[in-house]
Amino acid sequence: MGFSDFFFYPDYYGLVKTFLVEMPEYYSTEPVHPDGFLGEVRTYCEAKWSDLYLVVLLAITWTILRYLLTLFVLKPTALSCNLTKGNVTKMAESSWRMFFYVISWSYVAYVVSQSEFDIFGDPPSIFKGWQPAMVVPPLIYWAYAIECSFYLHCFFATIFLDVWRSDSVMLVMHHVLTLSLIGFSYASRYHNVGILVLFCHDFCDICLEFSKINIYFKIRADGTFHGIHEFLANVGFVVFTSSWLVLRMYWFPLKVLYSILPSTAKIYYTDHLPFGMEFNIMLWLLFGMDIYWFSFIVIFLVRIVTGSMKELEDIREETDEEVLKIKKTKELEELQKKGGAETTEQVCNGVVDGTIKNGDGLKQRHPHPDENGKDSH
Q1: Which residue, 101, 95, 98, 100, is CA-closest to 76?
Q2: What is the mean pLDDT of residues 110-134?
């Protein structure tokens, strides 16, 4: 594997242009099954009930394992570290996800490295030797079973267990799309495509959850501040942002999306490849979701640069009230040291330099009374 394996293939313009040119041509020229889409499914797809039973059983297993880890390990750890009440739940949630993603992504990376073909260095080889109902290699089979069952668990957990966030609806849609892609690619034996998609996505989640865990550990319920966790959260965010750019915004579109285009896919397989339109649409939708979540990263960076945010926080969720109170107390102490008792008294009354803070944390001008004691407005 050389340097070109990591950075190669067309630019975004070439990718989009090729997609817009080739997909209509593919749709109009590829042979159509007499019974339509369902006929193609019956012809080219194969899955057993035992596969479904295994996925459901594993999903239940992950849910039970999460419950036990949360009850006996994660929450007791958070409480012993004196985390605030709201952050105890969030820390347990993020720790569970990071624990799983570390194991699952490591396994997926191993599967990619052990692939019969160099599917990372030469992505079009994902279609080498493709046949309907071909035997799925055991390593890939178990990767699929683990990932599919986990996203089934996540679908349930996002709705019923996790803290609700501003992007939770999008997250539910993401889980539905991911389950569809995993199940469909397994049944149609496009498993090499699926394993490469998983490789390009799950590592970022490890970094995200690592950063969030350290954010929750940064400020404790007794008001103590732990700088090491702020440092680790910042390091995690840098790695998270970098990995998102490389894995999801570069490798995924320019390796995976490019490789499933009709002309590229047929480098190694010249016969009819079914479901080309369906898989292209679903994977482009997934890329659209990646762009949507990348916008949160951009918004955060803009806030840091403009000074409207001074520390790392998850802008998708509300900050714990206890943490907010602790931060306000710290601000009062700092102002007291700088400006003396008079400034502190003004802050306690909600007034600083002629301004007051409303309930949303936004500053408003403090009304100045006129000579008659009435507001001048």
Answers
A1: 95
A2: 88
- What is the pLDDT, as a whole number, of residue 108? 96
Report the C-alpha gap between 202 and 240 in whole angstroms. 11
Helix (H) or strand (E) run with residue 112 in it: helix 85-113
Instruction: Dig out the tokens for 84 from the structure.
Output: 């605030």
- Distance CA(314)–CA(296), nearest Å, equals 9
Q: Phi-psi region for residue 314, left (φ > 0), alpha (ψ -120 to 50) or beta?
A: beta
Number of continuous H segments (helices) and E segments (strands) in the chain: 13, 3
Mean pLDDT, rounded, of the chain: 82
DSSP strand pairing (351-352 vs 363-365): unpaired
Distances (CA, A) of 269 to 21, 28, 125, 197: 20, 19, 9, 20
Answer for the pair 154, 182: CB distance below 8 angstroms, yes or no: no
What are the start-end ranges of the H helices in 188-312?
191-218, 227-243, 258-259, 262-265, 276-306
**Cβ 105 vs Cβ 247: under 8 Å:** no
Model confidence pTM above 0.85: no
